[in-house]
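Ligand: uridine-diphosphate-N-acetylglucosamine. Inputs:
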Amino acid sequence: MATALIILAAGQGTRMNSDLPKVLHPIAGAPMIVHAMASGAALEPERIVVVAGHGADAVERAVQAHDDGAIVVRQDEQLGTAHAVAQARAALDGFTGDVIVLYGDTPFIQPETLAAMAQARAAHDIVVLGFKAADPGRYGRLVMQGDTLDRIVEFKDASAEERAITLCNSGVLAADSATLFDLIDAVGNDNAAGEYYLTDVPELARARGLSATAVTCDEAETLGINTRAELARAEAAFQARARAAALEDGVTMQAPDTVFFARDTYLGRDAMIEPNVVFGPGVTVETGATIRAFSHLEGCHVSRGAIVGPYARLRPGAELSENTRVGNFVEIKNATLGEGAKVNHLSYIGDASVGEATNIGAGTVTCNYDGVFKHHTTIGARAFIGSDTMLIAPVTVGDEAMTASGSVITSNVPDGALALGRARQEIKPGFARRMFDRLKAAKARKQKEAE
Ligand code: UD1
Ligand code: MG
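Predicted complex:
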C-alpha cells in the first residue's frame, strides 16, 4: 500500500525556553525532526510532508538537508493538530493510499510499531497508536470498547472517570488519505482549548459507520519532548539503545556508558572502542579497527585494522585506509591516509592526501589556510616527513621523498628527493660555558647590591 507521512512540527515549544524551534534541538547529533523522519522512512513513504510554523525556514532547511524530496508546508497560525494536518492537503494532491501522521517532537517510534499499524489498517479505517502510561498526566485518553476505539478525549475535556483511563494517545494516526481529509473537514473547535483536534477523527469516523482501533507500543517509543530535561532524557535513552545495539553487533567497549553515538554511527564487527569516545554525525568504523580512549570522530571513515588515538580528532572528510595509525593529539580533516600511513604524534593534517606507508613525523602541520583560501597538500607513497615540518600548501612531496626535521616546505619536492628548508647549524666551541660564567657573575653582583 502506498504511504505518505505527515509530520507535525509547527508548534513553538515554549517550554524549551529557546530561540531554536523545538524540532531542531538535536538528539545524537541530529535534529529531533530527522529522527521522526527516519522512523517514518521504514514505511518507504511515497511523499513526506512536514508542517512547519515557528522557525519554518530553519525547519525547512534541516528537513531538506536530510531528504531533499520532503515537502515543507506552512501553518502560520497554530489552530490545532487537525488544522495542521489540513495544511498538508495540497501537498498530497493526487496521492492515493495511506497517510500516517507523526509528531516532530516524538522521535522514537519504532519501525515495527508503524508496521503493526499498517497491518491493523487492513481491518480498520482509522488506526491510532496508544500506550499504557505510567503517569497519564495531560495526555489524551483512548476510550475503548473491546477492540474498537470509541473516541479520544483530551485531558482538558475529560471527566474524572475518563481521566482515570491509563491508555493514552501517542498522536500517531493512520488512515486512507481521502477518508482522513474528509473527516478533518468535519472537525470543529468547540472544546476546552478552542483548537481543531486531530483526536476528534476517530469519533467522527465512527459516526459515519467507519471503524477505528488502537495499536499499542511501549511508552519509551512515544516519549514526547517538551522541555530540556525531557531532551536530556531522550538523549540518554537513545545512547542506551545505541550502546546495547553496538554490543549486540559484536563491538567491544570496556566502558559503554562513556561512549557517545550519533544517529548514524556505523561500527563494524570486532571494532574496539575504548572509554570516552565521542562519535559525531557520519562516522563509519570498519571491522577490527580500534578507537582508543578520548578520541572525537565526525564525518569520517576508518578502515580495517586502523588504530586511532588515544586523544585523536578526526574531522569531516578524514578517510583512513587499512592499517593506518593516527596517534595522540593529531587532527585530521578532509584528508586521505593511504594504507599503512602513520601520523602518530601532535600533528595537523588538513586538506591533504598522504600516500601508502608514508610516515609523518611529530609536530607536522599542513599549513592549508592563507586567511582566505584553503589549499591542498599532496604527499606521495613511502615518503618520510621529518618532525616539525611545516608544509605550506599548495605543495607536493613526491613518492619516497623526505623532508628534514624543522623544515618549512614552500616548493614541491620531487620523487626520491630530500628537502631541507631550515637554517644551517653553526658550532661555536666553548661559547656556552663562557656565556654561563658571565651570566652567573652578573647575578651574583645584583644579589650583593640588593643586600
Ligand atoms: C497531543 C494530542 C494528545 C496526545 C499528545 C501526545 C491533540 C489534540 N492532542 O496533545 O491526545 O496525547 O499530543 O503527545 O492532538 N502542532 C502543529 N500545529 C498545531 C498544533 C500542534 O503543528 O496547530 C504540532 C506540535 O508542534 C507538536 C504536535 O503537533 O509536534 C502535537 O501538538 P501539542 O500541542 O504538543 O499537542 P498536545 O497538547 O501534546
Ligand atoms: Mg505535546
